[in-house]
Write a structure and sequence with these properties.
The protein is an alpha/beta fold. The chain has a domain of 228 residues: Rossmann fold, CATH 3.40.50.150. The chain is built from twelve helices and 13 strands. β2, α2 and β3 form a beta-alpha-beta unit. α4 packs parallel to α7. The longest helix is centred in the middle third of the chain and has 13 residues. The chain is globular and about 70 Å long.
């Protein structure tokens, strides 16, 4: 089996399921477990820090780990950085079979910090049986020094190991999400997967085709029939209840744009059979749309013809919004004011490269939280493919179907 620690809603598991590979996920969050169940994934709802390793010894082929990032990420308080010496000590001790977690935890400023050491507890126990054959781990960039410590230990156990920072956009994810990655193998040289996409399209050379241009938000959301994409406006209401905000005048000027064929829209499954159909303004195609990651002054703002910035949600779920600017008058641009439109959970899932009809469970806030914490399945596929004997190319879109 493949053991998936801190499995989340199934970012790592989605490509494994498609390839017919058995994955067992350990996950604590109730709604992530329900999403995994709806997706047909085998899950043990448990605290990874308390679950015994013994049931997996002698039957584990690969280990995946994406510890919770809130203690380390820019979106949180980053207390994990202050706790880093304690986490390094925990990894050193666990690699030698000494469990000092209880003592170290009392000194941590954020109790979640020590979860980044948990994979070593499993790896040490599995190593006594010559397992696993390979390891893949992912976290926010600040965790890279910890991954390097893991790498040094794994090399003494006979692994080839690579650590570094990868950008999800380089692998066809419509999001410039940078993550610290560890790849290790007992049977092959551990190297990062070759990127399939780049910021600018590369020409073909004697060595083969160049990389394709990064996938834009417009392309991922199915707006690609025009250079004037229109965001989806979901009338289902925000996570806190109440109506979703609409652009000014949208109720009295509805969608001739779709009928005129000026753009096409792929409508994802929002998980609600009685959800209202998306509503559009007649003037929406006269605006240039961008996605703003939050309401901070230094928020990342990306045009719809670019990949999104890193998506993070949690308490900021309702601050990730589509904003509009009128196109130049000479091109028939709009006038007046268009209010910001909150991104929908369905759109966020697509921008994280999950399938359009992924069976998210929970209310909007719970779904947003799952998406923001997940590994993009398309990035996961590229990271896992070499270990599994799979080949992915820029023409392989089966994982985004």
């Amino acid at each position: 089996m493949v053991l998936d620690l801190f499995a989340g809603p199934g970012g790592w598991a989605d490509p494994l399921r498609r390839w017919g590979i058995r994955e067992v996920g350990l996950e604590w969050d109730e709604w992530a477990c329900k999403t995994r169940a709806a997706a047909g994934l085998l899950t043990v709802r448990t605290d990874v820090a308390l679950y015994p390793v013994r049931p997996f010894v002698g039957r584990t082929w690969g280990v995946i780990a994406s510890p919770p990032c809130q203690a380390w990420s820019m979106a949180g308080k980053q207390l994990g950085l202050l706790d880093q010496p304690l986490v390094h000590q925990a990894v050193t001790d666990l690699a030698q079979g000494r469990d000092t977690r209880a003592k170290l935890l009392t000194a941590c400023r954020d109790e979640r910090s020590l979860l980044a050491a948990e994979p070593m507890r499993y790896l040490h126990a599995l190593n006594t049986a010559g397992e696993p054959e390979w390891v893949a781990m992912e976290e926010v960039p600040h965790v890279l020094p910890l991954w390097r410590q893991y790498a040094a230990i794994l090399r003494t156990w006979g692994f080839s190991v690579w650590t570094g920072i990868l950008n999800a956009a380089d692998y066809g994810v419509p999001q410039t999400r940078r993550r610290a990655i560890l790849l290790a193998s007992r049977t092959r040289a551990a190297i990062p997967p070759p990127p399939t996409h780049a910021a600018v399209t590369e020409p073909e050379t004697l060595f083969g085709p160049g990389r394709e241009q990064w996938v834009s938000m417009a392309e991922a959301l199915g707006w690609g029939a025009t250079d004037r994409p229109v965001p989806t406006v979901c009338a289902g209401g925000p996570s806190s209840g109440g109506p979703e905000p609409f652009p000014s005048g949208s109720r009295k000027a509805l969608a001739n744009a779709r009928d005129r064929g000026t753009w096409t829209q792929r409508t994802p499954n929002t998980g609600s059979a009685d959800a209202p159909a998306p509503t559009f303004t007649a003037e929406a195609h006269r605006w240039s749309w961008s996605l703003r990651s939050n309401n901070q002054t230094n928020a990342t703002v990306r045009r719809a013809d670019e990949p999104a910035g890193t998506l993070f949600f949690g308490h900021r779920a309702n601050e990730c919004v589509w904003v509009a600017e009128p196109l130049p008058k000479e091109t028939g641009g709009g006038s007046g004011v268009v209010e910001p439109i909150r991104i929908t959970a369905a759109e966020a899932g697509l921008l994280q490269s999950f399938p359009a009809h992924y069976p998210w469970q929970g209310n909007k806030g719970q779904v947003f939280s799952q998406i923001g914490n997940a590994v993009p399945p398309r990035l996961a596929a590229h990271l896992l493919a070499p270990h599994l004997g799979k080949t992915l190319t820029s023409d392989d879109f089966t994982l985004a179907a």
